[in-house]
Write the C-alpha cells for this entry.
Amino acid sequence: MPVEEFVAGWISGALGLVLGHPFDTVKVRLQTQTTYRGIIDCMVKTYRHESLLGFFKGMSFPIASIAMVNSVLFGIYSNTLLALTATSHQERRAQPPSYIHVFIAGCTGGFVQVYCLAPFDLIKVRLQNQTEPRARPPGSPPPRYRGPVHCAVSIFQEEGPRGLFRGAWALTLRDTPTMGIYFVTYELCRQSTRDGQDPSPATVLVAGGFAGISSWAVATPLDVIKSRLQMAGLKRRAYRGVLDCMVSSARQEGLGVFFRGLTINSARAFPVNAVTFLSYEYLLRSWG
Ligand SMILES: CN(C)C(=N)NCCC[C@H](N)C(=O)O
C-alpha cells in the first residue's frame, strides 16, 4: 500500500486547518448557541470577550489529530482508486479514473475516516464552545474543560466510552456521500487540464476550493445535527438519535436551522480546501 498519499494528506490537512480554524470556531458557535445574531455579531463578541485567541481555541489538538484524519481520508481514497483502477497516483494523470470510481473511492475514504474523526471532532466542538476569556476576572468560574486531554478524560468518566463517539452516526451520514462529492467536484474542475499534464497551481486552487464548497453545502444540514448531538451530552438534553434531533430542531427553530453555518462553512471551505489540494498535489509531485 503506497504511503506517500497518507503523509501528503497529513501535511496538507494541517495547512488547511490552520487557515480555516477561526471560521470553524464561528461556525460551531452559530450552530450550537442561540446568543449570536449572525456571523459578524459572533465575530465581534468573540473578539471583545476573548481577543483574537478566542478564534483559535481548540486548535493545537486538531493539528495533531484532524490532520491525521485528513491523511486517512486521502490515503484511503488514493489506495481505493488503486484497487479499483489498478493505476497509481502518477499513472492517473495520463489515465484519469471514471467519476463513478472517484465517487466510490471518496465515499470509502469518508466512511473510514469517520471512526478516527469522531472523538477528535467531539473534543474540538466542546472546546470551541467554551466562551470564557483566557484572562478570567477574579471569582468567575473556570471553564469546564482545561484542555483536550482533560476534556477527553471528563467525557469518558461522565458519559462513558460511548460518550466519546457521540454524534458519530450523524458524522457517518454527513461524510460518506459528501466525500464522494468532494473528490468528484475536484476531478470535474481539473478537466481543463490535458491528459498527461500536471494541472496548473491556479487550476488546483480553484478545483480544491469548489470541491470544499460543494461538499460542505451538501453536508451542512447533517453538520448542524452532528454538532447538536455532540453538545447534547453536556447540556443533558437527550435526543433519541439523529432523526429525533432533526425533528425537534426543525419544530423549535424552523427549517432554516439546517442551513445554520452554511455561509461561514462555504467561506471557510474555499481557502481551506484550495490550500489542502495544492499542497497535496505539490508534495506528491515533488516526491515523484
Ligand atoms: C463536507 N466535508 C466533511 C468535507 N468536504 N470534508 C473534507 C474536507 C476536509 C477539510 N479539512 C475541511 O475541513 O474542509
Observations:
- The chain is about 70% helix and 0% strand.
